[in-house]
Structure formats: C-alpha cells, structure tokens
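Each record in this resource describes a single protein on a pair of labelled lines. With that in mind, the following record should read easily:

===
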Amino acid sequence: MATARAFVRDTLQGWGHSELVDDAVVLTSELVTNAVVHAGTQADVLCLLTEDGIRVEVGDRYPEREVPLQGTGMSLGGPDREGGRGLLLCAALASKWGVEYSPTQKHVWFQLDLPQRPVGTRVAGPVLPDALLPLADGRIRVAVVQIDRTGAIASWSEDAEDLFGYAAEQVTGKPLTDLTAWPQTPGIGTGIAEALQMSRWEGSYGIRGEDGRVVPVYASHLRVRDSEGEPSTVCLLVREFERAVLQTPQRQPSADTVGGVEGRTTDPFEVFIGSPAPEDLDGLLQRTVERARDMLDADSAFLLLATDDETELEVRATTGLPSARQRFARVPVEAGTGRYGSARMPAVHEDLTAVPGAVPLLDGTGMRSVVTVPLKVEGRLTGSLGVAAEAAGRYTNEEALRLQFAADRIALAVESARLGELERLRRGSLSFLVEASDLLAGTLDRDQTLALMAQMTVPTLAAWCAVYTIADPASDPYLSYVLHEDEERIDGLKALLSRISPPDPVPTPGARIWNAPSEAAHQAALRTSMRSLGLASSPHIGSGIGTTLATAAAVGGETVVLPLVARNRVIGMLTLGKPTDDHFRQEILELAEDLSRRAALDNARLYSERMAISQSLQRSLLPPELPIVPNVEVEVIYRAAGEGNEVGGDFYDLFPIRDGAYGFAIGDVCGTGPQAAAVTGLARHALRLLAREGFGGPAVLERLNAAILDEGERSRFLTLLYGELWPQEDGSSILKIVCAGHPLPLRLRQDGTVTPAAEPQPLLGVMEDLELYEETITLEPGDVLLCVTDGITERREGTRMLGDDGLADVLAGCTGLTAGAVAARVLRAVERFAAEPASDDMAILAMRVPEPMKH
C-alpha cells in the first residue's frame, strides 16, 4: 500500500503537478485496498500523463469479480458497503473514472484534470515572514546552459561565466560531463548523462570551475525541441545553498485531511520520506535529509548512522552543505560535552559561533543555528538527524519536537535498511575474500599477483588502485601497477602518480590517508584551466584539457595506503583512491586490509627470485652456443617437458677438443628434478674435461661411469651417445662413436637409405666394470647423422608409438635437406604424431656433410 502511494506521489511531483498529489494518493490508496483486500490479489499501478490530465489505473488479477454496483443508475450504495467507498471517492474527486476488463485483469481507473495555469509556472509556496526567508550571497546568479542532443554545451550565459569562471568560447562544444566533478546527487542513482535525457529533472551535482575548485550546484533541467524538431536540454543552475530559487516546493501534509476527505489521515512517515524502498538505504537517507530540510525550511540537513558496533556515528547523507567530502566520516557517540555526546537527546543550538565545535560536521560551512534529534529503536541510539540554517536563532524546542516526531516515524525503517545493508556487506565481504584467496593462491608469479590485486580492488573497493613494490630495504618504492575503473583514465593516472613521490613505506598495519594524489590532481586541474584561456578553438588542446580535468576529477577524492608486510618488512604498498569528494567506508578499508594480508606478495617475490635462479642454473647445464665446425652443418633442437622448465633430464653438447677434432654428445638421465640435473651437469662437464685430456671415447665414458657411481644414493643411470668428429680435407668427415644404452644414431645416405650408425652397448651408472668400444664411420658429402633422445622415439598416441622404424621413415624423406631442415622436419613429425603435449624431454642433434658447390 505504502509503495503504491509513494510511487504515485513521486511520479506526479516529478511531472511538476504537486497540487494533484493528495487527491491521487487518496484515490490510489482506496483502489489498491479494494484489489488487495477484497479481490485478494496483487495490484498493478500505472500512471499516464495525457494532454487533458493524469490517469491512474489500478489492476487486479480477479477479472471475474465484478465491481459492486446497484441498479442501472450506477448507484454505489452506502459508504460502508464492501468496495463502495473507493468508488464514492472516485466519483467525488476524479473528473472521470471507469472500469475495464481483460481476460486476465480488471482495471479501475480515474483521471484528474490538469490545473489551468500558464506554461512553466509552479505551485505557490507558503508565505513566510521576512526574517525566515532564505539568505542569498549578494545577487543570485542563475546560470542558463543549453545542451544539444549529443550532450555538448550549445550556449553559456553571462551568469554561468560569473559562477564558474569559463568564458562561453572556452566551453561551447564541449560535453557538460567534462566539467562535472561528481556526476550526480549523492545517494541518487541517476547520473548527469541520464538526467540530460529526461524530459524534466531536478537535482545536485558539482561543476569544476576554472580555478579547479568544485562549485556544488542545484540544477533544474527541461528538455525542449525547436521548430525543426531538434531536441535539447535547458539547464538552470544555482549554487547549492540557493536551491530554493529553483526547487519545486513540497506541499505540507495536513494533520486532519487529505484531498478534502475528512476522517482520513496521512501517515507523516510516508509524506516525510517518499518513495525509496526500505532496502534502498542510500536513497532513503538522501530523501530523508531533503525532506527534513524542507520541513523546517532549513538551508542544510544531515543524517548520521551508527556503525556496526554502535560506538560511533557515521555521516551517511547531507544536503545543502558545500560538498559531500565528509561522507562516511566517523565521530564517537560520546565525544564530550557539547559535541556528539548529546546525540542521545534532542539538542538546539541557537548560534554555533558561540559554541565552537559543537557540531563538527558544520564547521566552516557558514551554518549558525542547528537542531539535532536522535534516531532510536528499542531504546538504542541508531543515528542522528539534524537541520541547520545560516541565520542564528532560527530553531526552538517546537522545531525540535517536530523533527523528533518525524525521526521517530522513520527510525525503524532506517534501522531495518541499515541492518540489511550490514548483512549484505558481510556476505559480500566473505564472498569477496573467498574468491580473492582462491585467485591469489593460484599463482606465485609476482607480476600476476600484482595484477590480480589491482583487478580485485577496482571497482569493488575503489575507483582506482596503484601498487608500489620495494625490491630491498635500501630501495625506494617503485610504481609497479596502476588500474582505473575507466580504462581511458589509466594513462593519465599513471602519469600523475609518476610525478609525485611515492608514499612512505610505514609498516604500521591499517589504512592511512595519503593526500599527495588529490593535491597533485587539484594543481594539475588549476594549471590546465589557466592554460585553457584563449585555446579552446584548438580541438587537440581542448581534448587534452578535458582529459586532464577528467583525470583530476577521477583521483581528487580520498586516497589511502595499506602496507604489504612480510617478516616485519614492508615489501610493497597497496594504494586505493576515490573520485572527487568521495570517501571510503570503514568496512571497505577493513576489507582492503584483509586483502593486503592475503596477497602473499612476499611468497610471489621469493618464488620469482627462486625461479630466476633455477632458470639460470638450468641454462648452465646446456652449452651457451655451438661452435662452427668446418665443412659440417650442425643443428640442435631441444624441448624440455613441464611448465617452467628450460632443461630436463636430456642434454646435448658439441665442443672443440683440439685442432681439427670436435666432441659431441647427446644423453638422457633417468628421472627428473634436482638429482637428475646434478647428473646432467656432472656428465656434460666431465665429458669436456676428459676429452680435452686426450682420452678416447671408451675411456671417457668409463671414467664418467665411475664418477656417477661415486655419487652414491644420488646417482642416476645415464644413456649417452658420445663421439668425436674429424672433418677431412676431401669434404668427408670421420666419426668415432660410442653408444652406451642410448637410442642408436641413424645415418641417411644420398640415395635415401637409412641405417643405424652404431651398435648398442651398456648404459652408464649401473655397473662398475664396463668394457666399451668405439665404432668408426665416414660421412660422405650429402650424408646426415641423426641423434635423438627417447622422447622422440617413444612419442605415443594411445597404443601407437613412433619407434625407431617410424623415425627412420621420417628421416628417409629428408634427402637433400640441410641439417636445420632435417631437425625441423623430425620435430614437426613428432608433434603431429600425437595431439597431447609431450610428456618427456626431446633433443635432436643433426649433422650433415654438405655437398661440394658446383661451379
């Protein structure tokens, strides 16, 4: 019922027909009662604005139930008859009414004729004594700004120049949104861009003046169209504290009658609050302070709510004050005599200049007289409501009683909405932290951790975020990551933060205020506004000015810094910011602090450092580069299996032994991890050392076998193909090969035949006494020697395996190819053999003796 009445009231007031509100609300209330109580169904309410009047339809879901009428003369019976009173009211108050049926609904409607008045006039307000009239700061300036259909400024009056400092040529053609510092009335969901599209709108927003400061204004928008049908919006703007010049007056409720019907009273709570649903806490509070201000004909009003633990009061809604910068500011409930210690009782201050600091929220606002009353539920203090005026002595105990009566009617609804908001915040916080923990636990990469932290905080916790990191105690904080909810602002924000010194790395837990960004933003906006004089004709410069001002507005609010601490040392800082004149709620700061503790940035840093060390050590197990062998083409392809691995159990090497001789090797250590890597390093370095000492192939491998066995429990068996390469003057190459348990090397001749180039012998690291021998082959021009590890031959797809025969078939098709082309074709064949990623390391060593060049 209350929802229907509030809907009709606000709709008619939005259309500028407040004088019809009372009649419409009474009729709607009676018809909805009929639908809900008598028909027993839900009610649908529809408001229509026509050229003749306002039509309100109330429908129910029981079309079979007829409207109770008597006789053909439409007699409605007595007022006590079921269903009769609502229709009696329709007949008495409405200019037209009727009933319409559909297969699913029954509609009872009424129409109220529009009052005959000149276009553009408003209803009259109360006649007040001169002493109670609103104060004006000198001549009242009403800025007239016309906005075209694209949102750009088409005209700019002289009063607009006086109010905001911009000449008409500086702003014409620019979007109005470029000048707005905060885009909407605090607590109201309609933004400035949406308001410009409405046929009629009233509300508050901030205009950033040429000096960079924000001028709070009250605006009245009217959408019109010219003779050619082109729509535009005419905006009348006055300073916020002069809003009475433009604001549509609200009719005061009557204690005894509504709409001229005696015996029916209007709920003061409904008239005082209006339409926001109880769960819409911000809308409810904003409407409350606006109605409180209007009810006592005040210049401003404010409302404070108790925090979760009810030990402090938090500023949640204001109107008529210079700015909303104190939103969410907290004060103790008992802060001493004369301050908020009196919050539990109504209080009237006739002149705040005589009691400095009595109401800290009003310090520096020009307000002199104030009345405050508590919001209480079951004896508990749940909030405080106050109204203030610029003149002294405006309020007495009578106004305090009126305000207290209204506060008592709204306290329960406000408390219900507050508790609902706290419950939603708790659930949202738990959900947020669970999701954040899962995401942060899923990575130990430092850069990815920083990116995740920023993405989780924006826009959930803040409008923008910057992460600073500290490499070591002797280093200065470094700006590592910047994110803004508007991607177009990221570059400007990064540039702004790079020009100011980073915050001090203080290890004290909790959030602390950092004013440097907002001060830098204000200075940048001021300098840009000064440079804009006479430069608006340049599109490029104008665009840059708009970008700078938008960036300044985006970071001009409250900024907080939270330390990222590990082992009692600050290793980074999480910086969160709000746009101009916006502040953080304590619950949001506590949530951000919890997130900073869960970030595990130190673990990510240590992991990144260890990963870098691991990768460096892994690279040391492979040769840095291959030597150039005369008259021999050499190509190596190496693929380590596993994420983050550069070297596995497989390895290769090619190195000069002495003049005209080169050693080559390709091997596979059993197992993975550090133990296998240790054997890999031992084998590669031992091979080079022993070969250069003059030992032949069998002696080199026998001594390497002994070294592996000396490792004891850490030893791993090793398959190894080792050989010596001797390029000859006739263009051929002689190879001496020992194949210790390794896949046999394959030789490709010019005629396309493929044969093994060695015999299998025992692997290393198993038996103490080995008797190995070497085999000698000669590679003629055009011949290829292919050496691989078992990751190539044991490539599987289900039950199929590539095998030695499959590798030989691939090699047979490589006649005439270079060593690099042979290795690439083998790898491509292996990758195509199976769709799944390789589970084993793969190494390919191809050597080819090129054919002599033909002249």
Summary: The chain has five domains: 1-63+85-113, 143-245, 281-422, 444-532+544-612, 622-849. The radius of gyration is 42 Å.
